[in-house]
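Write out the 3D structure for:
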Amino acid sequence: MKKIELLSQTHDRKKFDCGEIALNQFLQRTARQHIQKGLSRTFVLVDDEQPSVIIGFFTLSLCEVRVECLPPRWAKKYPSIVPGVKLARLAVSLDWQRQGIGSVLLVEAMKRALVIAENAGVIGLFVDAKDVSAKTYYERYGFEGTTERPLLLFLPLSSLSNAYESAQE
């Protein structure tokens, strides 16, 4: 059975390979330090049969975004700087890609963002898409960008809740 848990020393970070050097290096060298320092939280998907093998991971942190980076229909509703939850990283091992694991991780990130929103003031979930392909992927879940910053994507709290509920069905 697969489960998502906070990254710990029991997870084999060295063998993880998603095909992106920067993401691999973050997981291998930085993620646990960021957890210890309170900078972010990295969660891993593992299987009970091989609990040390990381199938995929995502990292969440809090962020502040300038209102001009929001899509215009949202920008006019808020003050100049707004708080949010940032999906800082999301990666799936090469062995598990194209099997829906990214969606599982994204839905869990949405769920955790909603919990954060219940306990602190945030307006939604933000992600910096690494490229146009990633941007298209996130847009399927309702994320929106702007022409000025097309890869900085925003999923407002109301849409976040709807996207999470739709993904659960």
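Residues 2-168 form a domain with the Aminopeptidase fold (CATH 3.40.630.30).
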